Amino acid sequence: MKKNKSIIIYGFLLISFTVYLLCDTFLISEVYQVVENKDNTVNNQQNSSSKRKPKKSKENENSSQSSSDETNVKKELTDTSYKDNNIEINIQEITEYNTSIYIADIKLSDASYLKTAFAKSSYGKNVTDYTSSTAKSVNAILAINGDYYGVQETGYVLKNGVVYRSTASNREDLVIYKDGSFECFNESDITTQELIEKGAYNVLSFGPALVKNGQISVGATDEVGKSMASNPRTAIGIIDKNHYVFVVSDGRTNESEGLSLYELATIMQNLGCKIAYNLDGGGSSTMYFNGNIINNPTTNGNISERKVSDIVYIGTK
Known about the structure:
nine-stranded antiparallel β-sheet, five-stranded antiparallel β-sheet
């Protein structure tokens, strides 16, 4: 009788510990660092200013002038396009491989308009929000889901020039340098410090690379982990200097089957990408433009967004 009681207690403790580990891995959120948006910092400074206003320095005057100039920029906007003096975005929907695919062609005057953002302005574990919510919080014009770093214990996290995690994984990453150029690398081959010294501004750690030097770099049977062959997908690619594409596909529905990695790579190559990289897919795959979700994200069989850790977006300075 005592033996059976011990077995029951042991089984209960084992199940409880397993449930805790699963919750800790996938559900329990923990904020490691709050990342303030530049706009919030400015607002806080203005709200806490004394009655006597300090004299503006030349640098502040230039900053104010730049902000004013950007506010007065002439913008041309339609349901599928955006254009101002520095940013040009054109979105088209195509159907290939029995799948709806959304392509955003992006041309920038300089690479500073290509950015990343954390969900809830916080770096941490399982800190998530909808792609659309994070996009709105940073006034993004266009956004896609990022690499979902928050469910991983390892893998580089380098966002907007700041290193948040330097623990290497065995993944193939994409680095976006300050000049806007792309490069794919294995984390085991280089440290985050070396990346910073080379001018790294953002690192996306998911993968794999889809296209390198204009050539498809995945095989017909390659897949991410145990994913199904056909899935909703998200990818980013570079065509030329400051000329990029964001691509998101639907999937897992009667209307859209989804893409394999090889099919996604083929699309990126056909778009003229010199380098293209696979981001988090499945229920995460979301494209946001001008306040609206462009595609049909699929979560647990329903058309709805899945919350993610981070986004890649195009926004004004």
